[in-house]
Amino acid sequence: MYTLVPKELYDKDEKKTYLKYNTKVNDSDYISADEINELNIKNVYIPYVNVNNLLVDKFRNINYFHFNSALLKRFSMQKELKLFCSCQHK
């Protein structure tokens, strides 16, 4: 449950609006946004609050982000083009 929004169009008060077109958003949902400076976008998503709360209880202070944010940052650093293909025959 995420969407990517260009920074120029991003408004922190509209996070729920960005997501409602891709998924069902409840009034009680907490919505986060990661900044991906390398691509000039925001990754808006609903974090797993239960998991985050469990980790905060265990480790006190955590930083969390959506897995796509990490992937996009990493992919943006690659200088050469690569293609990976996984084929299965059934």
Instruction: Report Rg.
Output: 16 Å
Specify the helix fraction band: 25-40%
Q: How many β strands by DSSP? A: 3
- What is the ordering of alpha helices and beta strands? EHEEHH
Question: Structural class per helix/strand content?
Answer: alpha+beta
Q: Low-confidence parts lasting 5 or more residues at pLDDT below 50?
A: none
Beta percentage is: 15-25%
Walk me through this protein's architecture.
Helix content is 31%, strand content 17%. The protein is α+β, with helices and mostly antiparallel strands. It has one domain. Strands 1-3-2 form a three-stranded antiparallel β-sheet. The relative contact order is 0.19. The model has no long low-confidence stretch (mean pLDDT 88).
Short descriptors:
alpha+beta; three-stranded antiparallel beta sheet; 90 residues; 17% strand; globular
In short:
With 90 residues, this protein is α+β, with helices and mostly antiparallel strands.
Which helices and strands appear, and what pairs or packs with what?
Elements: E1 2-6, H1 15-20, E2 32-36, E3 41-45, H2 49-59, H3 67-77
Antiparallel strand pairs: 1-3, 2-3
